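Before relying on records like the one below, remember that each one covers exactly one chain. Contacts with other chains, cofactors or solvent are not represented anywhere in the record.
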Amino acid sequence: MNGLDYSQPINEQYIYFFNYYGCAEYEFMKGLSINIDGSTYLSEYSRYISPDDNFVLIFFEYDRYIEFPLYLKKYFYPGKNFLLYVSAGFGPVINNYAKGNVSLEYKKENTVTGTNIDFDSTYYNFDISPLRNSLPGNGMQVPVSVIL
């Protein structure tokens, strides 16, 4: 909405990581293997914007991401009971769930909308996945992590 200050900070309420590394490794040559891992990241946050007592905008979002790093690993055997390795690869991050709630309430005395009516509405459980999974250039970035 025009006239709102969107610099209000995001309130991160819940962040949870579940990581499982080493779920699959195949050594196709002595000391050289290919690996795939799995990670899950859940986040929940909200934003509360109220420039005056007559206007309240509340936004809440819950996201779930999965990552499947795929990489090559080179082992080195410098001595007895000692093992070193170097790995390189990529891990695309995929948003597989994004839902949100938005609540907007204002009175006719508000200074934001310029309307002369009272309004109160909430939209629950709407799908934000198209925004979170859009391509670069459409306003969102597709995150990619690199494992070194």
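DSSP finds one helix and seven strands in the chain.
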